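User: Sequence in, structure out. Go.
Assistant: Echoing your sequence, followed by the structure tokens.
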Amino acid sequence: MLRFLLKTTLTLLLGSVLVILSPGIPAAYLHEAKPGNYIEQVTVDGWLREFRLHVPKGYNGARALPIVVVFHGSSASASVIERETSMNTRADAFGFFVVYPEGLHRAWNIGECCRYSFLHHVSETAFLTGILDQMHSSFMVDPSRVYVTGYSDGATLSFLLGCALPNRIAAVAGVSGTLFEPEPRCPLPKPIPAMIIHGTGDTQIPYGGDRGGPPQSKGDHFTHSAPDVARFWVTHDGCATPPDSARVEQVVRLGYHCPDSAEVVFYTILGGHHGWPGGGRGWVFSPEPPKDMIASDSIVQFFLRHQLRPSVHR
């Protein structure tokens, strides 16, 4: 009898371990929906993708909370952008989920040549859709308040997703990012609020734009300037010009008023390097991020001013 009980107990324990380790089981079912930090998985188009999730303090499922999705730059990771932005502390203060998606091979398919995700036709739109669907099935999420931001190539991806999923994303923001020529198709059913933050001293993604690409690329791509990116959103949102203008020390702010209470906000940091303003360094040898503004605070305040109309989101 004792041998039977020991065998049964061992079988149950091994079964539990296999359940936890099995990649085929959604990670949402492997933990309780309570405050904390988690590593989640979602299968999209046959790819097993990961994302880090922060559930804010005080969450108990009693009310629906917003989601802020933060995309890392190329050669970085979800944990790096989590550290750079300190967005979790804002989530705890204001009450929202933070999602940090993990790029395949530390990069995104943003339309450039010669990257792993580009060559394998990986859909980042499907990845975000899968994340949002899983979040909606596992937590009390407000579908009218889904926000997307990113840094460097993650900023470019955020802008592209704003064009691709305007019925699910309430606002976008990009830090030290750009758009490439040709401009993305962006048939917006409504204006989408957008924020652009870029430093004039950025040498990795130049503020003034650049032409070039790796030698093995199929033709050079043109990187738009930060003002061009701002004009892209002002044009697609049908915003009024000229903008409101203000300057505080080395930060110049242009604010455009758009239909349906949307807005485009463009921050120029004079002399600012490639980095998350007011945040941490991605790597020990990374340039010192600009200290002239705190991007995480500005982005969160911007996001929480906007939400989708009930007839827009699904």
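User: And one key feature?
Assistant: The chain has two domains: 1-26, 31-303.
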